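Standup notes, structure subgroup. Blocker cleared on the adenosine-5'-triphosphate input:
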Amino acid sequence: MKAYVVGNAALDETLSIDDFPRPGASIFGASLSRDLGGKGLNQAVAMARTGLPCVFVAAVGQDARGREIADRLAREPLTPRLTQLSGVATDASTILMAAAGENAVITTREAASALSPGQAVEGLAGAAPGDLLVLQGNLSAGTTGALLREARARGMTTAMNPSPLQPYFAPLWPLVDLAFVNEGEAEALGGTGHLLAQGVQGVVLTLGAAGAALITAEGQTRVAAVPCTVRDTTGAGDCFMATALASAALRGVALDAKALTHATRAAAHTVARPGTVAAFPTEAEFADILGRAGQPS
Ligand code: ATP
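Run returned:
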């Protein structure tokens, strides 16, 4: 089984600050760091590091940031399919990281929203029945819909993380098999039951330090978070989703409690370390997480 992650690719610049500034205030930043980011890229890198074959489809501009992303991605164990668009700036995120571990993220989406339906669907070349399509909320409505319809035609399993929330998601849920949402997103979407009623087979609700729940028509399974010292929560949800999907795919089973247990372990690594992709478990750490958590308890 292979995963096709289609989404945004960005460079993250993280400013560490004592506390969030009030409007109009000028404050000092303690440090500035740079890392790969973008929800699509985050999910693709985490998934690839688990050992699941992964194709990452995204748009970048023909600029220095785009080249840096391509160079850094070449060091990851995935197959990048980057469309280099002219006249478009590669996406970037500015992350404000407060001392208490809370963050605020501002992301551009010029390149992600310019990826056309045709270019995106081309990125699914070779996808077979049972392969995974993984999406988030940074692409245009037309491109997201085209990808979901193409995935259905190919017999793929579709997984959606509706973040950032966009109004165009509403008619797409019947094309989604698995949804990953946090509490705010679940509430804004009318509740997890509303997603199930529209044909979503499994909803994973992430609950921050309280862990996560898998909700299906049969009932609910809760998994506790792994206690850790919070350094930087950026990308925790992306790492969680990628690990849960990969854990189930690598074992050839439907999403289950074990997949969520693996995901809470991987997300705890991410939360306990600074950075985005730099904080994700390495390939060796993923082997340990997936192996160790796979032992009978
Ligand atoms: P983000 O937008 O920051 O990537 P999210 O809102 O999508 O995150 P969360 O529910 O905050 O998702 O976190 C995802 C997972 O990360 C949780 O289910 C949990 O396993 C882990 N996690 C998050 N915060 C903590 C924490 N303080 N301690 C331990 N684990 C955590």
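Discussed briefly. Residues 59 and 83 are 5 Å apart (CA to CA).
Next: hand off to the docking folks.
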